[in-house]
Specification:
- The structure is a homodimer of 147-residue chains.
- The first copy, chain A, has 147 residues and is mainly α.
- Chain A has one domain: Arc Repressor Mutant, subunit A (Orthogonal Bundle), CATH 1.10.10.10.
- Chain A contains six helices and three strands; from the N terminus they run αααβααββα.
- Chain A has a three-stranded antiparallel sheet.
- In chain A, strand 2 and strand 3 form a beta hairpin.
- Chain A binds a DNA duplex (30 and 30 nucleotides) through helix 5.
Chain lengths: 147, 147
DNA sequence: ATTTATACGCACCAAATGGAGAGTGTAGGA
DNA sequence: TCCTACACTCTCCATTTGGTGCGTATAAAT
């Protein structure tokens, strides 16, 4: 059942190089930014602040869901470094700290909006895709077993 | 210089609960999807396939940049499970495997488009923000030292 | 006098992530 | 006859991530 004869179409694509479209320097920068930003906690905090406007530390933690204080602090610091959030300390006792998005963070939140909407729209499809993948996998292993 | 008297505005926000806006069940689902998808390699592979259409394994690796074979395989498998990519095996020797986005993956790529554009537009701002954060940090530590 | 509330910092530990390098199977070319 | 191409898989190892629990300062409430 093995097809070992070379398909001419495939053969044609054999030594075809990777088509380049954009400047590699820009690519590197964008990849770096994506690397920093494409993090679960960053995205979730971004969403929470985008939705609620201004939140305090513990409120933010509850809004995000199951995040540890450590990760919350860590991610917020990184986001502050990147200029995405503004941290306001009110020198009262007990301490009171407010977090809010900067215009830059706000614009990123807006850019991510499409992704939230996608997730809300398509999560059912993903679940179906997973089920059918599991199905195919099971079928394959049945084939292997009867080999 | 410490202001310990309670600010009435802050006091008012003291026991204010986190404002809830959406159904927590939907939230949980979306967070789950985001958790799966908000991964550096997933986003980069998604971008590469969105740009180039169909790519083979090694081409894809080069298009993404510095990714190890292990991560490439692993991430592709996950994306296949989630129904984002279609994997086509041509039974020839040497092996030939094509990867392409499914309609679902294509729609996610479109949703992420806004984020690529954001990254391209704002990476200079991020770098400036980082510099000014470092500046402020240095100023703070100078203050601490002269304390 | 004791507790509570807040926003952390720190130390320790487990688990996940990710990279490097070697191995695999086989047809066709040097 | 040996080498190369391709798309992996596997093992070993280092780094990173993330959680838990404890400590802290201090005013107000009990």
């Amino acid at each position: 059942m093995r097809k070992a004869s070379p398909d001419p179409q495939i053969e044609a694509r054999r030594r075809e190089p990777v088509p380049e479209t954009v400047d590699p320097a820009i690519e590197a920068l964008v990849h770096d930014v994506i690397g920093k930003v494409a993090d679960k906690w960053t995205m979730l905090i971004l969403e929470a602040l985008h939705d609620h406007g201004t939140l305090r530390f513990t409120q933010l933690g509850k809004a995000v869901g199951r995040i540890s204080q450590k990760m919350l602090t860590q991610t917020l610091r990184q986001m502050e470094k990147d200029g995405l959030v503004r941290r306001t300390v009110h020198p009262v006792i007990p301490p009171h700290v407010d977090y809010t998005l900067t215009p830059l963070g706000e614009s990123l939140g807006a850019a991510f909006c499409g992704v939230w909407i996608w997730a809300e729209t398509h999560h059912a499809e993903i679940q179906r895709a997973r089920a059918s993948f599991a199905e195919r996998e099971a079928a394959t292993s049945r084939l292997m077993a009867s080999d």
